[in-house]
Amino acid sequence: MKILALDSTATVASVALTEDEALLAEYTVLNGNTHSETLLPMIKSALETFGTQPRDIGLFAVSEGPGSFTGVRIGVATVKGLAFDSKTPCVGISTLEALAYNLVGFAGLICPVMNARRSQVYTALVRSDGESITRLTEDCAISIAELDELLSEYTEPVRFCGDGYDITLPELKKCEYLPTPIRLRSQSAYSVAVCALKKYKNGESVSDTALVATYLRLSQAERELAEKNKASEK
Prior knowledge:
This protein is α/β, with parallel strands linked by helices. About 30% of the residues lie in helices and about 30% in strands. Strands 6, 7, 8, 9, 10, 11 and 12 form a seven-stranded mixed β-sheet that branches. A five-stranded mixed β-sheet has the order 3-2-1-4-5, sandwiched between helices.
């Protein structure tokens, strides 16, 4: 089964085409938040290289968040558009889960971190046995100090990944960590595809209309509106 997977939740945009878990093509670019301009050309190139049409795809997969509000929306909307009225199943994958899968070959604790602004990171903790990952916590948005405290309760070092890597490590005071190769720190649509295939086999796919984004917290505009409404009530 061919899988088309996307990740546009951060500054990196990634597209992958697979045959089940076998990688056929992966395009990854780091050109800022211009995913509305880059995703479709990458998708077109990947499909044309293998003489494939959207109707030939057996599963659409996408990082559903958390991450950049605009990036998350673009990725989910693109998949919904590609799958529209086709009855092709879709799977949304946590950005953090897909990031953690980048490091599945390293047995031990893995902690993906994404820059959530406002002195916070989106994060989760998973454990890898070298072949698969198991969640230890749910996705959340917390301060780096809180994350440091949480990880200090474990007696083994942690590997980090994600676009929050460079802002997180300098702030850690209590937990031990191991370095992560640069190539494995960023979003990978291939990881999204593999994680999506597992969910699909577990019967966790949805239709294009049921596919939704996950933000974990309100956008800046929503926060400002809530604060404005709260102030007007006083």
